[in-house]
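Structure (tokenized):
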């Protein structure tokens, strides 16, 4: 049986604006295997959320998507809107960053979860209601039978995020996309939500695309790591290699900017500059204006993603000089 559940080939998501063409995702190639968690990391503006929205074909106008997004070998970009509605929430579900903007304030949370179940499963009303209560219990909401009749504003931020997870998992999706799902939560609630996602992944056998800028969450949750910068994939490897032996200056710089217990440092190293404008990105390597290893060739030649060892790819022109 093919282990690959999702394969992205040469994905380009461009926004055609008056200021020019913003290349939010540019020639992205990725794979997610069955029951695997892939951490997609990078600074804000790197193209992480646009990648997720592209998979579900939720990119707003004036965005256009080209390439291939193969889910079980079928190209989602060729499906009709009606077919995509059955995929969204059924086969592929997404947890958004801010649950308060994703939940409808005028409907009870029970209504909103049951809507997803009714859309994708042929169940009668009693079975739907039972499933809603069961899912709320699984995500740790006490007195679920009563609380399903409450509205979003009656829940705390952590509880609303649990409701979003319950909604996303209510139809047993094969792929769960978690977009900064723990960003707005305090550390104790964040730990609980991550543990919940791990437990539910084991129970349902789902794959997870974990989008975050928090490398601690990546270390806790991910099997593999993909590093995005200005719409380009810079590095792809397993999670242990990402932290112990990065092979791209951008991932190295990200790691140097976070506190570590095993490294004695008085000050953290910040990455100079900012993520470039996607309408007019730098020539050559997009990271070269901020890279401490950059040379003249980096300004002229665009690097290709090359496999430097089995399962580990890097898009750096000087990878052999710097790391070997």
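Design, position by position:
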């Amino acid at each position: 049986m093919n282990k690959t559940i999702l394969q992205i080939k040469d994905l380009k998501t461009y926004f055609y604006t008056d200021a020019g063409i913003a290349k939010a995702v540019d020639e992205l190639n990725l794979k997610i295997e069955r029951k695997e968690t892939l951490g997609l990391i990078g600074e804000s503006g790197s193209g992480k959320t646009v990648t997720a929205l592209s998979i579900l074909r939720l990119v707003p106008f004036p965005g256009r998507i080209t390439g291939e997004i193969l889910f079980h070998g079928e190209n989602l970009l060729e499906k009709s809107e009606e077919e995509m509605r059955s995929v969204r929430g059924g086969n592929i579900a997404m947890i958004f960053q801010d649950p308060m903007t994703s939940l409808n304030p005028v409907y009870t949370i029970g209504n909103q979860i049951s809507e997803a179940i009714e859309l994708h499963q042929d169940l009668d009303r009693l079975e739907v209601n039972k499933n809603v209560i069961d899912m709320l219990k699984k995500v740790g909401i006490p007195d679920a039978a009563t609380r399903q009749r409450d509205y979003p504003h009656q829940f705390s931020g952590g509880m609303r995020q649990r409701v979003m997870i319950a909604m996303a998992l209510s139809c047993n999706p094969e792929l769960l996309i978690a977009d900064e799902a723990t960003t707005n939560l305090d550390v104790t609630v964040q730990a609980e939500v991550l543990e919940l996602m791990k437990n539910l992944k084991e129970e349902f056998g789902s794959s997870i695309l974990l989008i975050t800028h928090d490398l601690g969450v990546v270390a806790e949750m991910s099997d593999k790591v993909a590093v995005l910068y200005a719409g380009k994939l810079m590095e792809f490897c397993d999670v242990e290699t990402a932290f112990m032996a990065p092979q791209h200056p951008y991932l190295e710089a990200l790691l140097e900017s976070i506190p570590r217990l095993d490294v004695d440092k008085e000050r953290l190293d910040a990455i100079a500059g900012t993520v470039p404008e996607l309408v007019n990105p730098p020539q050559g390597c997009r990271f070269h204006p901020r890279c401490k290893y950059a040379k003249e060739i980096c300004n002229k030649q665009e690097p290709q993603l090359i496999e430097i060892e089995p399962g580990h790819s890097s898009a750096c022109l000087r990878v052999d000089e710097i790391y070997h």
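Reviewer-requested clarification: The radius of gyration is 21 Å. The chain has 13 helices and twelve strands.
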